[in-house]
Specification:
Number of helices: 17
Number of domains: 2
Structural class: alpha/beta
Shape: globular
Radius of gyration: 22 Å
CATH topology of the largest domain: Rossmann fold
Bound molecules: adenosine-5'-triphosphate, magnesium ion
Strand content: 15-25%
CATH architecture of the largest domain: 3-Layer(aba) Sandwich
Largest sheet: 8 strands, mixed
Order of helices and strands: EHEHEHEHEHEHEHHEEHEHEHEHEHHHHH
Helix content: 40-55%
CATH class of the largest domain: Alpha Beta
Length: 412
């Protein structure tokens, strides 16, 4: 494959960035603005661009406009304090462009470029193919919004919220929704959502990536008849879990988002590579916490790591069982962030619904717990949320290494 090219308009501080990009399989083209404009006006083709806005030279705006005139080149705009007016108008989040605050480590910039490639349907260098073995383009029909339910601690209600969120989005929008069970080894979404089981991704685990075709994924996905939500599971047998590779999960997300408007992922509660890849493929992460010291401490550590790599703003905190234990105000204070939604506890109803394989919002729509779950879905489906800047980033490696460092620091 051709190496994706990245134009670096960075004012002379680009060498470590060029190295990081070259190592990651990109072709880095460092140029000042004049050179870049001259080069692009000739035969120069570029896939992505990074512009340092800090010097606020007129050339920045001209270059940005040029990059969007002939080809729509996804661009990362870097700044330290103030975003220049023309860059505010550029409206990252709605377009394919993004902002990033300096200083940004070279690896972090690389992850973000990789994420941009994935979201523009391009192949990541060294990543998954965009063509089949015989050279045909893999069909892409849509660009679904990927939302992960995550908690570093198990048992806090991720699956319950994921299932109800998927159904609520489907009811609220009528859009196609894929619920993906990526809690490899233990998760069993089809046990709480009564949908037939077709083997899951485990069936594809021994096939080479070129056989991970649309038909192959279609055969593993099933439909929850009552809601129309499509369900894609990793499998059921813990013994199969080792065979489910990160690449297969990423390919599954990619397939899911090209064929559905929404992809809701129920993640494994850990910092393993597979989970971090799911978070990296997400546009939003719903961090689920319960009002207890243990889960809060874990959530706080996760948020700290996310802040460290400058990415906390894609995380929304959902407090489950919010009417017991530590108050929501104290949770917000402890976590140093606002709480986006709360879900009350309702043990008997939750158990009855789960035992029947019916989502609680369908079985008990009038309960407060269902109202709360619908409000969780509204975080995504109300128009204002759709217009909000949506970050699309790939940052699992940074997070994993930070997590490992944190682990060492506390003597884990
Ligand atoms: N708000 C709630 N009220 C009552 N019961 C709840 C609530 N949230 C979750 N539960 C119940 O708590 C149990 C754990 O929830 P769930 O399986 O969704 O957690 P999880 O985070 O997915 O756990 P794991 O990490 O083990 O997969 C389930 O029996 C579920 O029905
Ligand atoms: Mg679960």
């Amino acid at each position: 494959m051709n190496r994706p090219s990245v134009l670096l308009a960075l004012d002379g501080w680009s060498s470590s960035y060029e190295d990081a990009m070259t190592d990651a399989g990109f072709e880095a083209v460092a140029a000042d603005r004049e050179e870049a404009l001259a080069w692009l006006s000739g035969d120069g083709r570029i896939d992505l661009a990074v512009i340092d806005c800090d010097r606020s030279q007129p050339g920045d705006e001209e270059l940005f406009a040029f990059l969007h005139s002939t080809q729509r080149v996804p661009t990362i705009l870097l700044f330290t304090n103030d975003i220049p007016e023309w860059a505010v108008d550029a409206n990252p989040g709605v377009s394919r462009d993004e902002y990033a605050r300096k200083p940004i480590p070279p690896e972090a910039l690389v992850y973000r470029l990789q994420a941009m490639l994935i979201h523009s349907g391009r192949e990541v260098p060294g990543g998954l193919p965009t063509t089949t073995a015989d050279g045909a383009e893999i069909e892409t029909v849509g660009e679904g919004t990927v939302v992960s339910l995550f908690a570093p601690k198990g048992g806090v209600g991720k699956t319950m919220i994921a299932v109800n969120l998927a159904v609520a989005i489907r009811q609220q929008t009528g859009d196609s929704v894929c619920l993906m069970d990526a809690d490899v080894g233990v998760g069993n979404v089809t046990a709480v959502l009564n949908a037939p089981y077709h083997g899951g991704l485990a069936h594809l685990a021994d096939s080479p990536p070129e056989e991970w075709t649309n038909d192959a994924f279609e055969q593993t996905v099933t439909t929850h008849e009552a809601s129309g939500v499509r369900v894609l599971t990793w499998g059921t047998e813990p013994s199969e879990s080792e065979r489910i590779s990160t690449d297969l999960l990423v390919a599954a997300v990619r397939w899911a988002r090209t064929h559905h408007s929404w992809v809701i992922i129920d993640c494994h509660p850990s910092y393993d590579d597979r989970t971090m890849a799911m978070l990296a493929a997400s546009r939003e992460i719903f961090l689920v916490v319960t009002p207890e010291v243990g889960p809060l401490r874990n959530a706080s550590q996760f948020l700290g790591l996310a802040r460290e790599v400058g990415l906390a703003d894609m995380v929304k905190v959902i407090v489950n069982r919010s009417n017991h234990g530590i108050s929501v105000e104290d949770i917000a204070k402890t976590l140093g962030t606002r709480i986006s939604a709360t879900v009350v506890s309702n043990g008997p109803k939750a158990i009855a619904a789960a035992n029947e394989g019916t989502p609680i919002i369908i079985k008990y729509p009038k309960e407060q717990m269902s109202t709360d779950l619908y409000n969780v879905a509204r975080l995504l489906t109300r128009p204002v949320a759709l217009e909000a800047p949506a970050r699309r980033r790939s940052w699992w490696s940074a997070l994993v290494s930070s997590a490992n460092e944190a682990g060492k620091a506390v003597g884990r």
